[in-house]
Amino acid sequence: MVAAPMSGRRWVQEPLLTLPVFFLLLVGAAMVCSATLLCEGGSAGLLTRHLFAMGVGALVSVFVAVLPMRVLNEFSFPLFALALLLLVVVLFAGELHGGARRWIEIGPLRFQPSEPAKLAFILFLADFLARKRCDLSRIGWLLGALAVILAPFLLILREPDLGTALAFPVIGGVMLFWAGLSPLVLGVLASPLITAGLASLRFLVRGASQPLWGLLWIPAVALGVVLLRRRGIQWLLVLLFALVQLGVALETPRIWQGLESYQRERVVAFLTPERDPAGAGYQVIQSKIAIGSGCTLGRGFGRGSQKALSFLPRQHTDFIYSVVGEEWGFLGAGVVLLLYTLFLLRGIALARQVRSRFGSLVAIGVVALIFYHVTINIAMTLGLAPVTGLPLPFLSFGGSFLVVSMVAAGLLLGVGVRRHEY
Amino acid sequence: MAFPETAGDRRRRAWALGLWIGVVFLVLLARLFALQIMRGPDYADLAHKNLIRPDPIPALRGRIFDCRGVLLAGNHVSFTLMLEVAHPEYRTAEQVEETVAQVAGELGLEAKPLIARALRHRKLFAPVRIAEDLLPERIAPLLERLEPIAGLRVERVPRRWYPAESRAAHVLGYVGEVNPEELQAAPVGGGYRPGTRVGRAGIEREYEWLLGGTPGETYVAVDAVGRKTDLFPGLPPRAAVPGADLTLSIDAGLQASAERLLRAVRPEALAAADPVRGAVVVLDAWTGEILACASVPGFDPNRFARGLSAEEWRVLQDATHPLLNRATQAAYPPGSVFKIVTTLAAREAGWLRLSSRFDPCHGSYWFGDRAFRCWKREGHGRVALQEAFAVSCDIYYYQVARRLGLAALLDYVGRLRLDARTGVDLPEECGGLVPTMAWYRRQLGTRPPEGAALNLAIGQGELMITPLALAACAAALVTDGRVRQPHLALRATRRDGSLVWEAGEPEVVRDLPVGEEERALIRRLLEAAVADEHATGRPARIPGYRIGGKTGTVQNPHGDDHAIFLGVAPMEAPQWVVLVVVEQGGHGSAVAAPIARELLRELLQGEAIAAVAISGDGG
Question: pTM here?
Fold first, then answer.
């Protein structure tokens, strides 16, 4: 099919994509209003900035949606290179804040380069994997793809910002899976991370019998070896796999000991928030109190006491979902979750239908990006994940990520309406 | 592996991703359900607790009355100057410092400690107390001058007040601010708050549980750092429950007389500037109720309620020990009053009769290698028991003691348990000392000399008994031989008059091993010791009444003799027991007996009723 002229009707044909985003943005604006303006000593300044960022996001997202896919494809490499450059720059010239360098300031503009890097990464990895010659069953291409993933991951880990850094392997993993990589290979690739997680247990669980917890990775690796052998993998490769795991498992404790203290505190506080109610655990406890006190229908718009009296930390950014839970209850929080589900499932459906490999991969990358942020953020406010400082797409106040998530939605929409193009 | 071009492969992978999203979101939804639906009310409660800060309302302390309803301890309003240091006007610590310094200068107070406290309170968002007990007439001009200062206000705080100042101070005790350890130990909720005043001595301490009351609470909405907020309503306050009013057996008029009479004594040995030291106890002999309990020198408990300065505290620690309740916390040798006990011991041995006579008294008595003297140099001549008791002949009792022997005397004295605490409802009562054979051996290393018995017989030497214990035993001897626990509190009532607590029947602590026949003899001897022509107790005589008593003069190695008098009236049916001790007062008959006489006269003539006017004597 030849590129059909863009008609208004075709945009409206994607209501399952646009309506959830529209309502989520509405919820976000309302909640930012409640969490800033309708608080003790609140002012309209933050709300104005939020609405401004929303306007910018709308403009940019319409722009990328209108752009032909070919243009995106061609610009993906320069964009990615620029993103990596900024990530390097921020390590040296970034603003030091809370022990981390994450922000770049250029005049009045202040943003985290790691946020647009996510988009550039999705575009370039999609471009890389969509190439005609790309064959993931060949070690060279696979390593190339891994390099694309690891470059931003390692740079952001250096800032340090573990939560954001982990977005890259997750998004990359989903895109590799979509590109046809077998789950087994994916598992082998992810295995060092899994081994590292298991070897970290003894640092997370205090009071547990240390040697026992620290050795939990051994049966896991053994299981991996058995699985590989049953798939008929050569002994030599299996041995290599086991050796890599051994190395990771032995190296993990040393990394833990070198970890930033605030990172350790956050992870430990996540596991046992009651241990330190005034410190890092305070945020988790107050967030749970806020959400829990919402009950079924919530305390009403603007009436949340946890929010209004600043018991909730960073309530208009990372903990915006706690305000939703407090003021609109289970109903409101559930509807927000449903809106995300609709958006994500529609995104997957579009990725399935898109004929262009590039477009399909971009679509699935956007789905993975939004899914990762939503899951980690909401799980954090519910006390199910450590406090990582990842914002909630479309809802959280925060200039750069709001724009990025809206642009991501724009990309998905653009790909979706052109799903019949090659 | 190539890109999955086949529709089937794409579908499988799409399903896998969709399923994964579904599972993860279902977990989140389940968690939402658990937090909001299942445990929602609990969290709502927690959110509310976050929001509501309880502030204590101090409970009004129960009042204390005498047995006729005269107010002994009450509360009055104290005007306290507070500064709201968390006022939005004060943005920096320097501004607070400046303001506090200005206010302190205006009041003539030292600024430094106030500033330190103000800065501490600023962090807690709590107002700071600048000055207490402002005179009402001082407040208006002060506020006028300080008006431009933000957050300054005058608060009305209830303050303990003892209208008669030092009257019965040792009985009433005093109050002081609760300390951190007590705060820790107090039960949560109904207990103390910082700043609460609690009983520190006397009745105030003993009956804290009745007088203290239960503080109330106001509930204000505050934000995460504790600032008051107008965004949410608080809760209606829980009113404080005032403490119960306590009625004591003390008769304010009699108490005033006792204190006045004690202070009026001017022992010769005392330097003019030194305060007289002594105690008076008046007991109802049948119930153990304490009608008066005076100790001099005293103190003004109002100062404790205000908070003592270091200088005031130092004065209270001086050599005369004004805080000491000499009726319950000091022990004295009983002197000749003890001849009652010696008489009883010999009577029990069976050989002492009213007609018993020994060698005549010539003023001294040789035993071993030393002379034991009679108080009367020229001697009493040959006397029988009643006369010997009445004129308090020491030589007679030396011979009684010799015949009795130290062991028998000690054995009898020990059975009376004069050294035991009486169990009076005052904290920190002391016991006395009654020596035993074992005690002598410990002290001396050998068997005590027989001469010890002679000293003991006339109540000198190692023997130490508190005035209250002596009075309680005397009360038993002149009534039915049963020692009753002396007590002060009669009942506690609420403001509406309903009864909260009542002292039960007088509690019998023990029975003295003294039969009715012996008690009658003692009554006869006591009356003779006042009424007989040459009796030492003659100064206690009241024409028209039958008074009994016994003088005592205690040799004091540190100075002049202590004067003691035990008085009982009316002898036809003993009702009251008075015990007077004047340290270094000289002879018991000259100094102590007149005090007892005046008190007994008041009781007998019902003068105590007329003397309720609490400010009548300027005491």
Answer: 0.64
